[in-house]
Amino acid sequence: MSEPLLSVQNLKQYFPISRSYTVKAVNGVSFDIYPGETYGLVGESGSGKTTIGRSIIRLYNPTEGKITFGGREISGRMDAATRAMLRTDMQMIFQDPMASLNPRKKVGDIIGEGLDIHHRAASKADREAQIGEMLRKVGLSPEHAVRYPHQFSGGQRQRVGIARALIMHPKLIIADECISALDVSIQAQVVNLMKDIQEETKCAYLFIAHDLSMVKYISDRIGVLHLGYMVESGTKEEIFSNPIHPYTRSLISAIPHPNPVVEKRRTSLTYDYATSGIDYAKGTEHSAGGTHKVLATDEEFAAWMKESAPVD
């Protein structure tokens, strides 16, 4: 396997609220993303998914931990060359397609802003050609460049956000719940568009979402977050065929089935951390085989493995 494009080691992100209270949004999360792959981050609201994405792209300054991108450390103070590399080779697609677009700017100027800042266009004609090509690539028309964000639907605005990220030809795109605000039919279009673009450009994705079925569709590997801890990680086959952590099992059991006969018999598992007797702070990473990792104490892990063992 090649060297990881992004390596996150023991990332912690704390937010001091007062002298006596600090929100520990992310606690010691570690994972790698390899070139051209999609790594899915799933978990309930408040689990720390968006915070991890914003810390990686340095919208937040990490409290602790080491983040390496393209062979350079980006978690501390960065020199000018590293900062320029980060701002061009890593881009983000935000959750709200309206709030992330400047309503006073035309779509062409929004998409071309990166070209202007980093001087990636040789002339005005070259700039317009690049913007028009990117609009075509995301399923819009070059004529849309003169319109404003409010003149588009939600799905079209999200395509503008994707075009803005792609115009810099990044190596990694952080997609922060970029389909959660869209209709189901539009979600499928946007995700298929992202897969097509990945095949063409060979970029990597950090795909942050609630929807496990969509994460299973687009991701190569998956990390499950709960209360700021990475409780389980592995390939999508490992996670969905043999979930070990009870939180992961509860998430998978909540996925609705399209067959109404099967859906009638589906039973959702419940998981309450407060009454589970599990202490994430005392857990360590255990290997469940291959790339499958679980956060647990030795006793918890042994009990889960015994429970999930196949019956002869």
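(ticket continues) Second input and output from the same batch:
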Amino acid sequence: MAKNNLASPSIPKKVVTGKGGFIAATNSILSSFVCIIIGLLVGFIILLCINPEHCLEGFMTILSGGFNNISIHARNISKEISEAAPLIMTGLSVAFAYKTGLFNIGAAGQYTVGALGAIYCALVLQLPWYVCILAAMVCGAIWGAIPGLLKAFFNVNEVITSIMFNWIALYGVNEIVKKFAITNADGSITRMYESAKNKTYAIATKAPGSRIPDLGLSDIFSKSTTIAIFLAIIVAIIIYIVINKTTFGYELKACGHNKNAAKYAGINERRSIVLSMVIAGALAGLGAALYYLSGVGEWNPNDSTACPAIGFNGISVALLAVCNPIGCIFSALLISHITVGGSCLPTAYYQPEIADIIIGVIIYLCAFAMLFKMFIGKFVKDRSGANANAEPKASVASTSKKEESK
């Protein structure tokens, strides 16, 4: 029998271990730092152009974030923490899908549907907070599964379907919330908090059992501080383990690298695509639950005419973190820190949107992260090569000196 010389297709797999893996990780971190530094410099130049006299003060205010004013720093730090938790989750949603070869631009819609699940279970059904979280995850997972199914069975681009489903989620949720919203004494629909004067949110007053516990953090910072940030960090660690240390994560990444090769290797590529979007949607829905069940904000259907910015900011978090789940924690904290710092700018001289410009520049530069990594890698390689060439010369010189002494 003739021997078959055809090479079987294999799943592309880039294995970087030991010193090489450490260098690759270091290059990724340094490239992100380069993006951040350039973005901050651009922000400083903008402040300088607007008002040269107070540019240094404004720049230090942005850098200080929630630590600007000692008398109100606890409230600002609480704001940073509260906004970072959902940012971590939406960043994980985008990063997880990207690791499996999908671009989940529908995190905003999944976040919106997750908010509906959390708010409805809390204010209408009066369920415990952990049940409300599970409901939000299920709602987000279902909304994420639809683009996944269309991609897996009909090869419809997930970017197109997820964008369209963002708006379907927004207006659909607004109609449902209007029907079950907390109302005033005269029956008119108002915001989802108890008192418009005192801004006491309905989650804390109408359904205290549905609020995420604070475990004493509210005594240190503000009343809206809960353990949501710790839950988000734990989930990020779990996602990192799933992606990098499990067979399930390997199958998802393999399908993302090469769907045909994964199918040849016995991996169900359709199931992998659907599960990837389901998990991404559940993560976005969890982010909404962590935000609204903490009593930080409310959902007002009369004002919610645009998809939540947190959903789209998750793309920024994922890009800055190079789609690393652990990196999403730090990038979300950084973006939240700069945003709060921008809100503390003196409005007599500057507008808080300057912080958004800085974040936008940083994210734009993330598109060149691979270029930065290439330059950093080349620099490190040249330096290591120079040191390697210098060592033999030094050894030859020392040997000749020993011979002369003899």
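Agent notes: The radius of gyration is 25 Å. Confidence is low (pLDDT under 50) at residues 1-18, 183-200. Closing as not reproducible unless the customer responds.
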